[in-house]
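Lecture 7 notes: from sequence to structure.
We start with the chain below.
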Amino acid sequence: MNGSFFCNKCGAQNAAVAQFCSRCGSPTNPAASAVPPTAAPPYSATAPAYQAVAPVVGTGYGGFWIRVLAAIIDAVLLRVVVAPIHLFFGGLGLAGMMSGVPHARMGLGLLGGGVTLIALFFGGWLYEALMESSSYQATLGKMVCGMKVTDLYGNRISFGRATGRHFAKILSAMLLGVGYIMVAFTERKQGLHDLLAGTLVRRG
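Predicted structure tokens for the same chain:
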């Protein structure tokens, strides 16, 4: 029949221009009325499934001479802190000598020197390990020179690793200082103690 069609749902006759059946209300052209699903973004085989986290990269590494300067600053600061111990025992020795106690100054001087060495040993360890494992990631000398101690990925190191790095310096010094000189020649300016502890000294 010209100008009309029958609904494929209920069989009712409808005008050719009708968009919905006059009896059941079904769409006369379901393909046209259907809402197309939202197209998913095209998948790229080269795109990573996740965003990789790149290691933190500093602007550079602390070279040999800048680290020597930082070490001198730290040594001076440590001596200033420990100096009162030696002065205390020296003062006691002087007072003993003036009071007539034999060999008082020599004995107390030796005792004061021993206590000073012990204070320098433990003080140097705790100072470096605590500061380099703190949020500052550096001793005061390194902070003045704009350096930080990190692991190989730029993260803050633990107290245990900072302790290992500190005592590994003894080995660097025992090898006629070669462990320290390595800083000037290794690619990432690592001394022997840095290589053993897995650390870097970064600038910037």
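Points to note: The chain has two domains: 1-30, 60-203. The first helix runs from residue 30 to 33.
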